[in-house]
Amino acid sequence: MFDRYDHDVSSLFLTPDQSALKTRARALAEHVARPSAAQTDRTEEYPLDVVASLSEAGFMGMSVPEDLAGQGATCFDVALVVEEFARCCGVSGRIVVEGNMGAVGAIIAYGTPEQRETAARYVLSGDKPAICITEPGAGSAATEMTTTAERKGDSWVLNGSKHWITGGGVSRLHLIFARVMEGGVFKGIGGFMAYLGETGLIIGAREPTMGLRGIPETAVHFDNLVLPLDRLITPPEGIKRGFSGLMNAYNAQRVGAATVALGIAQGAFEAACAHVKKREQFGRPIAEFQGLQWMLADMSIQIDAARMMIWRAAKSADHEPSGFPDPMLAAQAKVFASEMAVKVTNDALQLHGASGYSRNTPVERMVRDARMFTIGGGTAQMLRNLVAGKVLDMKTPQTRGGYARAGD
Ligand SMILES: CC(C)(COP(=O)(O)OP(=O)(O)OC[C@H]1O[C@@H](n2cnc3c(N)ncnc32)[C@H](O)[C@@H]1OP(=O)(O)O)[C@@H](O)C(=O)NCCC(=O)NCCSC(=O)CCS(=O)O
Ligand SMILES: Cc1cc2nc3c(=O)[nH]c(=O)nc-3n(C[C@H](O)[C@H](O)[C@H](O)COP(=O)(O)OP(=O)(O)OC[C@H]3O[C@@H](n4cnc5c(N)ncnc54)[C@H](O)[C@@H]3O)c2cc1C
Prior knowledge:
Blueprint: H1 10-13, H2 16-43, H3 48-56, H4 75-88, H5 90-98, H6 102-110, H7 113-124, E1 130-132, E2 148-152, E3 155-166, E4 173-182, E5 185-195, E6 201-206, E7 217-228, E8 232-233, H8 242-278, E9 280-281, E10 284-285, H9 290-316, H10 327-352, H11 354-357, H12 363-370, H13 380-392
Parallel strand pairs: 1-4, 2-4
Antiparallel strand pairs: 2-3, 3-7, 4-5, 5-8, 6-7, 9-10
This protein binds ligand LLMBWK7S and flavin-adenine dinucleotide.
């Protein structure tokens, strides 16, 4: 009975085109991403060769609409590709996310024809744009950011600092969240397009990260960064509600981050299954011990549940007027998938015994790589706040004195 379905229930849900896309992504990931994953982790170098293969295969900028030379791939399509790459190499999975979602998604959705064309050109030529939101004093409380964009004549002048910017120094296109100021008056939070190499855009120190070491996480400083007026991205609701519009676009990247966590967990699970069948103790394969069988059963259940939540959240984008995933479904999927990946990768290491703790096997890397996803992209706690607000249908402000009763 079980044999009638793919191991990951793909055949129940995917169209023939989607199955073909997944198969094609898996083949390329196995061919280019898996062989270099350990070296990428060890050298901490951005995997330009993998990026070149991703571009050639059409996996960078696949979400760009066809009229801009992309493929118009859906959030769901991108998630299928992301999982396959993350299953082999977490860093590669993240590159596919940012090459299709996040900054580029926001610009394509809200930009002028020129802004959209520029963003499309960058990702289609292999750039993984950087999204610059977090500041040293404004992490979870992102709206407390202090970076400003002051209108001066025909220019914006940006000043401030971001940190933990994925791709700092390798990303060419940046989407910078900043407080828009005109005549000293705060107008709202907007997104600004800026390019690596522009005077005043300064790449700061690199963080020595626990995992996902092949992508730099750096500070990015803006020291009188002068940008033309047409670099401002304004969501349709206007700049006053600019943050809300930008975060709405960011929900796609939350689904993407959840999918990287899923792919890493799937990779660790497969490694664990192979190991327990091969490794013998007490004269028999350790796969015969029921305690380990139940661990593997639980791992598979958690992985499949995460996949279903991610697919639901990704599919919701097709039904949202904004074209982005539903915020609550994206948050639910990311909370579940990120916590699942921490547990599943740790269990996979446990099933390997000492060999899992060695840097000669991939599971220790997977444990380190998976750890990020309950933090980056909105912590599991902040996303629970969002879900709580939705299920209770009440605002849940986190500032002191900001609490509102249900129904208020
Ligand atoms: C949203 C928060 C920063 C909390 O800030 P506030 O309490 O000041 O703001 P809110 O009133 O909750 O929200 C303001 C405004 O935005 C709308 N909003 C918020 N979240 C979403 C969303 N997910 N989708 C759509 N709209 C959203 C909200 O409804 C309000 O709209 P109105 O003004 O009422 O109309 C905080 O909750 C938060 O999300 N913190 C996490 C910050 C974060 O995610 N940072 C990610 C940085 S990038 C990154 O980490 C990359 C890693 S990766 O690999 O992806
Ligand atoms: C690998 C990695 C990549 C990243 N990439 C990017 C990027 O490309 N661009 C970008 O802009 N940012 C990026 N970030 C930053 C990320 O978005 C922030 O780390 C995250 O939003 C949390 O902010 P913080 O680290 O300042 O933690 P804090 O906000 O200081 O949180 C510390 C702890 O307090 C909890 N907490 C805070 N407020 C509340 C509350 N109201 N209720 C309950 N718990 C709360 C948090 O959940 C957390 O456990 C990245 C982070 C990592 C680790």
